[in-house]
C-alpha cells in the first residue's frame, strides 16, 4: 500500500457543514490535520480545522491550491460539481471517486445503476416532458413521486402525485427540470445501511438503522432495527454490491425501503449517499468505530475499524428551534449532545443531534 | 446561574499540548469555539481551534487581548504563572481559580493543604538548605524523596535518597532550589481520582484508576482498580474535600498511594493536578462523559455528566518512538488510537495513547 497516509498528513474536505466538522474532529483524534474548502465564511467546520479556504466550488485557482496543500481529498456532500471533482483529482487522490459522485448526483443514474446490479428499487421512469410524465403515470399508476434528477435532498425537489392529479400540475411544480417518476412503494419502514470500503477492497457494514422522517428530514434513527435476518442480509449485500461496482473508497450510506413484514420482508434501494450520513451519527457513541473515523481510515488507506454496536440506540436530530433544548439535554444522564456550532437556527436546519445508548436488553 | 455560557461561546485555553487539544475537541462537540494561547507556534491544539494566540505567558498585552476575545479561561498545565492567571482573571472568569493553581504549583503548599484537611499524605518536611535537608532526613529517615517545590512533572525535579547517601549530594542534585523531603511510603499501588466540581458545587468522581508508571511517566491506567470499598470511599472523599476547600470548578485529578492490602488498605495523597489528567484519558471511550467534556461542562456552568464506566479499561500511553506502532494499533479490533499530531517523537514525549474497553466480566 505505497500511498497509505501517515499521521501528520492533511485531509482536504470539500464542504464545511456538520459532516465536514465531525470528519475533521475524527481526523484530529488520529493525528491528521484537516483543510476545509467552503464558500461560506461562517462554515462550522472551519472552527476545528488547521486550514481553511473560503472560495466558490468553481474557483479553479483556489481548488488547485487547495488540492496541492493536502494529501487526499474527500467531501461531505454529493452535489460536488463534476468539474470541481476533476480539478482536485488531477493533483490528489479523490475518495470516493468521480463515478460515485456522478451516480449519486442523478436519481435516474442511481436507480438505473442499482437495477443493473439486480438490486430492487421502486419502479421508475425517466421523465423529461409533461408528455413523458403522463405516459409514465399511465404505466406506474398513482400515487407516485416525481423527483428532479439532480440537487434533491431532505425532501426538496419532489412532489407526490395523488390519483386524479393532472400530469401538468405536477410537472409545473418542478419547473420543468429533468425528472424521474418513481412508483409508490408500500413500505413498512425506512432503513439505511452505513458501510465502508477500504482502499484494499475490505468492506465493513454497520447494522441496519431504522430511520423515521418528519417533513422529509430524518428525525430519529434507532438500532437494532429488528429486521428479519434474510432482509438484513439482503440489505448489507446490496450495499456491498453497490460499493464494489463503484470501486468505492470511504463511507457510503444506502437508504432503503422495507417492504412487507416478518420473514417475508424485503428491501428496495431508495437513495445512495457517497459520504458519511446523518443516519450514521449514532456510531460516535454507539459503535466501536464512528462512521467519521471509519471514513478517515478508508480514505487514508488504513484498516477499517470494528463496526460492533455497543447497546440499544436512539439518535434524534435537533432541527431548527429544537436546539434550544440543549441545556435540558445536557441534564439528561446518558444523553450525548452534539451541537454543530451554527449561529442561526433556521427552520428545517440541522443544528445538532442527541444520542442515547442504552444497555442491551433494557 | 446568570453567568452560564451558551453554545457559540468561546473557551480560552492556556497551553496548546494534547490536553488543550482534547479539550478543544470536546468543546467543539458541544458547539463551543476554542481559542488557544501558547508560545509554541507548532502547538498541536492549534490545529483544532477556531483561534490561536502565539505569545509568551508574560506578554500581558497578548494576554489581555486573549482574555477579551473569549468568554471563560481555563488551562491545561498547572505551572501557569500567577501573574498570567491574574491578568486574564481581571477580565474573564478563570476556572479552576488562582487558589487551585497556587496550591498545586508548590509541593509544600499542596501537602500542607492536604494535611490541614486531615487527609493522609507521605510525611514531609520543608527543606531550604543542606542543613535543613540533613535535619529532615534525620527525622524521616531514608529512603526518602527530595523534590523541588515547583515545576516538577513526570518524575522531573526529584531525587531518591537511599540509606547512607549524603545530604550534600542530594541537595546538589536539585541545584539548591527550595524543596520538600517526602518520607518513603511503602505503597502497593498508585491510583488517581479524576473528578469534577461544577460552578454550583455539584461533585462527580470517576471510579479510581490504577496507574502504573515507567521512568517516572504514566505508562498504563486500568479500571476497575479493585480497591476495597472503604479505601475507594476514602479516596473519593479526599478528592471531594480538596475540591471543596479550593472552591474548585472543573476537572481535578488527585494522585494517591494505596498503602496496605485488602480491607486494611488506605490511601495517601501524593499530588493534585488542577486540570484534566493523563490518567483520565480512558474516559473518552470508557465513560459516559469524557473528562474533557466534563471539564467543559463545569467551566461553562453546565450540569456535570454521568461518570458511569462502560467496561473494563486499559489505557496505554504511547511515549516517544512507541507512536510508530500506530498502524498495528489501528489494525487491533477495539483498540482506540489517539494520536496527538506532534511532529517529533522525542524520547519521553507523550505522542498519543490507546484505549481498549472490554465488556465487563471478560
From TrEMBL, chains A, B:
GO CC entries: cytosol
SUPFAM superfamilies documented for this protein: Glutathione synthetase ATP-binding domain-like, PreATP-grasp domain, Rudiment single hybrid motif
Superkingdom, natural source: Bacteria
Keyword Transcription regulation listed: no
Protein name per UniProt: N5-carboxyaminoimidazole ribonucleotide synthase
Protein purpose: Catalyzes the ATP-dependent conversion of 5-aminoimidazole ribonucleotide (AIR) and HCO(3)(-) to N5-carboxyaminoimidazole ribonucleotide (N5-CAIR).
Pathway: Purine metabolism; IMP biosynthesis via de novo pathway; 5-amino-1-(5-phospho-D-ribosyl)imidazole-4-carboxylate from 5-amino-1-(5-phospho-D-ribosyl)imidazole (N5-CAIR route): step 1/2
Organism: Enterovirga aerilata
